[in-house]
Amino acid sequence: MSGSIIIVICGLLLLAYIFDITSSKTRIPSVILLLILGWTVKQIADLFQISFPGIEEQLPAIGTIGLIMIVLDGSLEIEVHRSNLSMIGKSAVVALLPMILISFGLAQAIYYFDPNNTFKDSLINAIPFSIISSAVAISGSKNLISSQKEFIVYESSLSDVFGVVFFNFVALHEEINTSSFVDFFIDIFLILIISFLATIALSFLLSKIRHKVKFAPIIILIIMIYHISKIYHLPALVFILLFGIFMGNLNQIKKIKYLDKIQSETLNKEVTKFKELTIEFTFLIRTLFFILFGFMIKTSELLNVKALVWSVGIVVCIFIIRFITLKLLKIKLHPLVFISPRGLITVLLFLSIPIGHSSKIINNSLLIQVIIITALIMMFGLMFTNTKTKAEN
Predict the structure, then answer these.
(1) Are 320 and 86 in contact (CB under 8 A)?
(2) In angstroms, what CA-CA distances link 210 with 165, 207, 234, 246, 273?
(3) Which of the pair, 20 or 377, is modelled with greater confidence?
(4) What is the DSSP letter of 125?
(5) Is the pLDDT higher at 173 or at 389?
(6) 3 state SS of 142
(7) How confident is the model at residue 266 (pLDDT cuts 50, 70, 90)?
(8) Does the structure show a pLDDT above 90 at 326?
(9) What is the three-class DSSP state of 312?
(10) Which candidate, 262, 277, 289, places its Cα nearest to that of 216?
(11) What is the DSSP string of 67-84?
(12) Looking at residues 226-237, what average pLDDT do you find?
């Protein structure tokens, strides 16, 4: 039986690889195909009465590792130099402003229609739906022109970080007051120090390890530092983002006093290899997550009409706010206006909502419908993107 399971998993991963390769031609986001694939496997398993006990419990662990790797992968691609500071600033605004508006707007709606919830509980339930999924957005935008792809990498990576920090701030404080803001800024200061020290140490290890196995320990240390930071309620994703940006911009290090000593040709070569490994590992974890999530989807949840009213309303608000934000910042609308998918990060935060703080309005049906609808909008938006125009621009 175990041998059959291994064969099936390998077959699914190879299918996912084919989806990833062909997505540039079909313009269909691989996440849609992965969800369909997982759902199809579930139907076949039910037909032949094959059970996979305990499989649902693996989703949060796989998702957390996936989040770490996706943010790391995205941050490694972020190049920081004077010529793109304006783009980084605009992407930060597009990541943060709609998040705040959607979170508080949806929280107000939940609070109004579910009087059993406090506004704080409503906000906890609303935040996951305000965050762009870098796992879906980055993979879906790989066929755009470089400036648009770069904008999506900045925006979605920052959205993940802002969203997790925002969610933890609200969820982990019993009361939101001056004291909680002081604690928050202390936490940010601590994670910046930890990020700086850990990044220097990991960079040093990367350049000095001569053993043939060198990248696996680095990734393990990154995941371990992330989880240790989480135990102490520090915004651990900030460390992942800063580490990736640091490693992806080694050419700028020589301009900073005291840091130029770790700059070397050896380190540059090792970072290139590290990026390649990160891309491979990220693909594997992201694929497993979405296939598993698709496996857990129930047909009844997809067809829940009551939830559909809420999901359509949420999606409409998401894209209206995105349209207005891009317009105000004078950013070309097409095709960026269509790229605002929800995905892995939404699922993870939804599963992280503390017991006793959940709302009856926010359920599995709503979660699945919002993820699928936003992915379909991105898919059709990219399908109608003129390739010739892209090349000329």
Answers:
(1) no
(2) 37, 8, 33, 22, 14
(3) 377
(4) H
(5) 173
(6) coil
(7) low
(8) yes
(9) helix
(10) 277
(11) HHHHHHHHHHT----GGG
(12) 87
Q: What are phi and psi of 331, to 5 degrees?
A: -100, 135
Tell me what pLDDT residue 393 has. Answer: 42
| Spatial contact of 69 and 285, defined as CB atoms under 8 Å apart | yes
Q: How far apart are CA 261 and CA 142, in angstroms?
A: 35
CA distance 255 to 54: 52
Given a contact cutoff of 8 angstroms between Cβ atoms, the answer to whether 38 and 293 are in contact is: yes
Q: Which of 277, 261, 178, 262 is nearest to 222 (CA)?
A: 277
Q: What is the pLDDT of residues 275-298, one digit of tens each?
A: 888 989 988 998 998 898 888 888
Residue located via tokens 């996912």: 16
Q: Which amino acid is at 232?
A: Y
DSSP 315-374: HHHHHHHHHHHHHHTT---TTGGG-----HHHHHHHHTSPTT---SSS-HHHHHHHHHHH
Question: Residue 334's Cα: distance from chain center in Å?
Answer: 22
The per-residue pLDDT for 259 is: 55
> Hunting for tokens 């605002």 — which residue is that?
340
Report d(CA 379, CA 26) in Å as an integer.
9
Residue found under tokens 């920052």: 158
Residue 175 has pLDDT above 60, yes or no: yes
> Does pTM top 0.90 for this prediction?
no
φ and ψ at residue 115, rounded to 5 degrees:
-65, -10
Question: What pLDDT score was predicted for residue 91?
Answer: 93
